[in-house]
Design goal:
Blueprint: E1 3-7, E2 14-18, E3 23-25, H1 34-38, H2 43-46, E4 64-71, H3 91-105, H4 109-119, E5 130-134, H5 141-148, E6 159-161, E7 164-170
Antiparallel strand pairs: 1-2, 2-3, 4-5, 4-7, 6-7
Catalytic activity: [protein]-peptidylproline (omega=180) = [protein]-peptidylproline (omega=0)
Keywords: Isomerase, Rotamase
Protein name: Peptidyl-prolyl cis-trans isomerase
């Protein structure tokens, strides 16, 4: 099996780590039942919500949870991603791409997650854009301000940061 539950230092939420493959996931391994997940090393310490199923992290006071869809451009602080070694598009082109995603999403949370999982230039694409919980001061200011200004379930308009342009969905 090789799986165990660990706590993320940066997000302060549990994740699943496979010692054998050195792979990690925010979601429980698909090949494991809820009962097997509950028996993993670290499960009793880090997973909440009872039943031993998926992690049910809760926010500490002052924290929010969000997902995002990032499109980088050539002026981003790191103009490369898992999809493209060297990103050459302009900021305006990145915004245009994001606007296309925005019209496709049309306030549909599951569509947001699907598109973030396929298209985000952030490594969070692996978890459909989920960034977990964070508190003030952990994200770039424009991202933080937009996220804290949303209600749970709301999706932002285009937000520009040094990382690129984002759509943000507040999830907690």
């Amino acid at each position: 099996m090789g799986w165990e539950v660990r706590m993320s230092n940066s997000r302060n939420v549990p994740y699943f780590f496979n010692e054998e493959t050195s792979s990690s996931s925010w979601e429980p391994p698909a090949e494991l039942s809820k009962e097997q997940v509950a028996q993993l090393p670290g499960a009793a310490r880090y997973l909440s919500g009872g039943g031993g199923g998926a992690p049910a992290p809760t926010a500490s006071p002052g924290q929010v949870r969000a997902s995002h869809l990032l499109v980088k451009h050539r002026d981003s602080r790191n103009p490369s991603s898992w999809k493209e070694k060297s990103i050459t598009r302009s900021k305006e082109e990145a915004i245009e791409i994001l606007r296309g995603f925005q019209s496709e999403i049309n306030d549909d949370e599951s569509k947001f997650s699907e598109l973030a999982g396929k298209n985000s230039d952030c490594s969070s694409y692996r978890s459909q854009g989920d960034l977990g919980f964070f508190r003030p001061g952990q994200m770039q200011k424009p991202f933080e301000e937009a996220t804290f200004g949303l209600k749970v379930g709301e999706i932002s308009d285009v937000v520009s940061t040094d990382s690129g342009v984002h759509l943000i969905m507040r999830t907690g």
